[in-house]
């Protein structure tokens, strides 16, 4: 509903006696149109500066109310304010909000229909535009056609202000550099006497200077507020110390009731998995990323903004050249939740470590925009750290051959990331670390125990100690592929336990409820610590499997149709997922020379052979674990896994289903396939492990039967109770062999 124009008129009358930008008149506008009692912080200074025709650089924290600095000027004078914004979703969100308040605002973008655009242009050409605020993209601003329209409006004295939102995007030193923002440098030439207002929440000193120089601001009023967000509590949790980070996040969300949250992940697959997991746990949740079509995406955003969904699991932005790595994400989608004004976000969770403190600040700043107590929670994992380091170094080497500016910024990105690592791995006040990274020196007392480091320093010290030992242990075990006889509490990389979370977070793949889910969920949510004894875990899983079979048998007895069979369609889908995961692994592991299709088939067979009979719940769980394992495995682990089980029926499957016309080079280069004897537990000669042989040379021996889970565990127990006398059973020998394969 449009608001009565009375407020504007009365203000205009006041203007006759008082200057237009007098505080009292501006506060009236604020109250009338927005219902806020007072200006916050530096808002009034910024508004008064631009109304008096002065350029202004305004640095305010996320959620600080920067928009008001151009919205009030738009209401204080006839004419229009042009707002340059990097995101269509953000423009749309603001325009809808303004229209609801009766303020004439529009945006121009490729998503608008021709009819809407024509209407806007007609209004602008009318000589008496009704529009107050016009939001545009930086790309449009720079086009000659639009610039000539602007000049026309300006020549009529109707262009009051150009506001550049998220102004740090203009600087290649900033974390969100947008090349199209560079084109805004010409604004000053074309519109010399129109004041420019640059707004940002995340500019380091170097970026601030760059923004002001690039936009050719003249004698700007520089306003800087503290970056401190006193209403946010900062916490880091350590994935390597948690049984299951998915379950942990689920319980955090549940503990806070039906809380509004954003969860940021590095990759789409994690978004999907996590979102499915949380939904299965009863949380109102949706994934939001570039893999969704336009309709699905805007429906998720609508649902979230209008509180129909409480949690959105979104991808976060890494950097331009990673677009290929993270599967053609577009910038707009990466940043889609930036600046979107849902005020009651109580939790922002980074499920993977972000690339820089600036990005972290920007994203965590989505929480508590209503100034109420809210939380930033970051799940830190060593694998995530390595992955991000890999991405950033990849970016560096790529860019160094192309653009020198990018090269500069990508080199910087590595050192920026180290601040994030320090934030997670250091023991000092988190708030202090954030603020210091923006050049703000503060006493620790400012934190008022509103970060985990200040609130529970002893606990944090304990965690960090445990993290160090866990990392040392993990590195050790990932170097050495432990044979099944060598299984110990920490031996999570052994043949059966090569997924460190057999019992974790696979619910994404078992969301179509069936009897097995309960069992898997019990396992997933069990309180068994990763540090609990392996035998305890085996017993637990065995018990789960037995009860699963008991239920299955009783189902059969009452002639219930099996809802749980693994169909060919499901298997095909799994193969494709595994193939994708292998392709992603190839991007990470450059020296990987395997045949991808065949390897995907191989891995799927492995999953099917182990759990196909147990039903789709167990089977899916195994596929999901394998996919997750592929995202962290190194080349040797991967080759070992593919090689070790080569004598399983899957080899026949590969050769039957996909007979290679001629051995491909990659297959010829493939490491030796280990013979059936070795798979069977008999070690064979050491030479046979080191030897190389092509697929066509694979022996067509009769293959061993893959044991069921129970059989495997029982056999394991028997072996554990027997002295190792033969070479066949010698853990030492297997261990040595693995070492040689490294
Ligand atoms: N003076 C004020 N009094 C109370 N609330 C205000 C005031 N000014 C702005 N707000 C509210 O603060 C919230 C955040 O405002 P805004 O979206 O402008 O923040 P921002 O600084 O642009 O943040 P970001 O950097 O995240 O884009 C909005 O809900 C807005 O209505
Ligand atoms: Mg904003």
From TrEMBL:
Xref: Gene3D superfamilies: P-loop containing nucleotide triphosphate hydrolases (3.40.50.300)
GO biological process: double-strand break repair via homologous recombination
EC assignment: 5.6.2.4
Extent of Basic and acidic residues compositional bias: 729-742
Ranges of residues in domain Helicase C-terminal: 241-411
Domain Helicase ATP-binding positions: 47-221
Reactions the enzyme catalyzes: Couples ATP hydrolysis with the unwinding of duplex DNA by translocating in the 3'-5' direction; ATP + H2O = ADP + phosphate + H(+)
Molecular function as annotated in GO: 3'-5' DNA helicase activity; ATP binding; ATP hydrolysis activity; DNA binding; four-way junction helicase activity; metal ion binding
Cell compartment(s), UniProt: Nucleus
GO CC, one annotated term: nucleus
Classification via InterPro entries: DEAD/DEAH_box_helicase_dom, DNA_helicase_ATP-dep_RecQ, Helicase_ATP-bd, Helicase_C-like, P-loop_NTPase, RecQ_Zn-bd
Location of the region described as Disordered in the Swiss-Prot/TrEMBL record: 1-20, 647-742
Alphabetical UniProt keywords: ATP-binding, DNA-binding, Helicase, Hydrolase, Isomerase, Metal-binding, Nucleotide-binding, Nucleus
Keyword Nucleus listed: yes
Pfam families in UniProt: DEAD, Helicase_C, RecQ_Zn_bind
Feature: compositional bias, Polar residues: 7-17, 684-703
Family: Belongs to the helicase family. RecQ subfamily.
UniProt-recorded name of the protein: ATP-dependent DNA helicase
Protein species of origin: Citrus clementina (Clementine)
């Amino acid at each position: 509903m449009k608001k009565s124009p009375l407020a504007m008129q009365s203000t205009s009358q006041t203007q006759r006696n008082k200057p237009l930008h007098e505080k009292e008149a501006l506060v009236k506008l604020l109250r009338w149109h927005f219902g806020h009692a007072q200006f916050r912080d530096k808002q009034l200074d910024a508004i008064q500066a631009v109304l008096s025709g002065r350029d202004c650089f305004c640095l305010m924290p996320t959620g600080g109310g920067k928009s008001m600095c151009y919205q009030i000027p738009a209401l204080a004078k006839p004419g229009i304010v042009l707002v340059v914004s990097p995101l269509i979703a953000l423009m749309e969100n603001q325009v809808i909000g303004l229209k609801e308040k009766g303020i004439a605002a529009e945006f121009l973008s490729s998503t608008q229909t021709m009819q809407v655009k024509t209407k806007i242009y007609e209004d602008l050409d009318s000589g008496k535009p009704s529009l107050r605020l016009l939001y545009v993209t930086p790309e449009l601003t720079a086009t000659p056609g639009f610039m000539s329209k602007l000049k026309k409006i300006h020549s009529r004295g109707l262009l009051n202000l150009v506001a550049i939102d998220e102004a740090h995007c203009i600087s290649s030193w900033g974390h969100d550099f947008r090349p199209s923002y560079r084109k805004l440098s010409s604004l000053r030439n074309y519109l010399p006497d129109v004041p420019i207002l640059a707004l940002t929440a995340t500019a380091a000193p170097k970026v601030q200077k760059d923004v002001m120089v690039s936009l050719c601001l003249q004698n700007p009023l520089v306003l800087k507020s503290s970056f401190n967000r006193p209403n946010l509590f900062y916490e880091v949790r350590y994935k390597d110390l948690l049984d299951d980070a998915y379950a942990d996040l689920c319980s955090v969300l549940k503990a806070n009731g039906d809380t509004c949250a954003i969860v940021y992940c590095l990759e789409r697959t994690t978004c999907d998995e996590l979102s499915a997991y949380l939904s299965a746990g009863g949380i109102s949740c949706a994934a939001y990323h570039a893999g969704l079509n336009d309709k699905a995406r805007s429906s998720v955003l609508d649902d979230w903004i209008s509180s129909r969904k409480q949690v959105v699991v979104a991808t976060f932005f890494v950097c331009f050249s990673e677009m290929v790595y993270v599967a053609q994400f577009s910038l707009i989608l990466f940043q889609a939740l930036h600046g979107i004004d849902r005020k009651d976000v109580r939790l922002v969770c980074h499920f993977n470590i972000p690339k820089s403190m600036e990005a972290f600040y920007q994203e965590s700043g989505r929480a508590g925009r209503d100034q109420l107590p809210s939380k930033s929670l970051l799940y830190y994992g060593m694998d995530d750290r390595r992955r991000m380091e890999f991405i950033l170094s990849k970016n560096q080497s790529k860019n160094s051959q192309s653009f020198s500016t990018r090269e500069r910024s990508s080199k910087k990105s590595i050192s920026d990331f180290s601040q994030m690592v320090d934030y997670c791995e250091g023991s000092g006040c988190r708030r202090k670390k954030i603020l210091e990274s923006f050049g703000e020196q503060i006493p620790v007392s400012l934190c008022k125990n509103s970060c985990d480091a200040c609130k529970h320093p002893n606990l944090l010290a304990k965690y960090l100690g445990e993290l160090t030992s866990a990392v040392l242990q993990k590195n050790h075990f990932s170097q050495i592929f432990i044979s099944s006889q060598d299984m110990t509490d920490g031996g999570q990389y052994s043949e059966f336990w090569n997924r460190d979370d057999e019992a974790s977070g696979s619910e994404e793949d078992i969301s179509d409820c069936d009897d097995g889910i309960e069992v898997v969920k019990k396992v997933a949510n069990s309180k068994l610590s990763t540090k609990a004894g392996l035998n305890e875990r085996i017993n637990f899983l065995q018990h789960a499997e037995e009860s699963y079979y008991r239920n299955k048998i009783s189902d059969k007895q009452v002639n219930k149709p099996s809802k749980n069979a693994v169909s060919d369609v499901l298997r095909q889908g799994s193969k494709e997922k595994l193939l994708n995961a292998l392709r992603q692994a190839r991007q990470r592991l450059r020296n990987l020379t395997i045949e991808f299709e065949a390897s995907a088939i191989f891995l799927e067979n492995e999953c099917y052979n182990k759990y196909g009979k147990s039903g789709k719940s167990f089977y899916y769980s195994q596929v999901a674990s394998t996919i997750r394992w592929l995202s962290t495995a190194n080349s040797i682990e991967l080759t070992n896994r593919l090689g070790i089980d080569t004598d399983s029926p899957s080899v026949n499957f590969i050769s039957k289903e996909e007979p290679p016309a001629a051995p491909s080079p990659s297959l010829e280069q493939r490491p030796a396939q280990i013979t059936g004897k070795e798979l069977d537990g008999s070690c064979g000669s050491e030479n046979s492990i080191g030897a190389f042989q092509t697929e066509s040379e694979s022996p067509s021996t009769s293959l061993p039967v893959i044991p069921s889970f129970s059989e495997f565990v029982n056999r394991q127990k028997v072996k554990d109770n027997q002295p190792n006398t033969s070479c066949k059973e010698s853990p030492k020998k297997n261990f040595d062999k693995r070492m040689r394969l490294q």
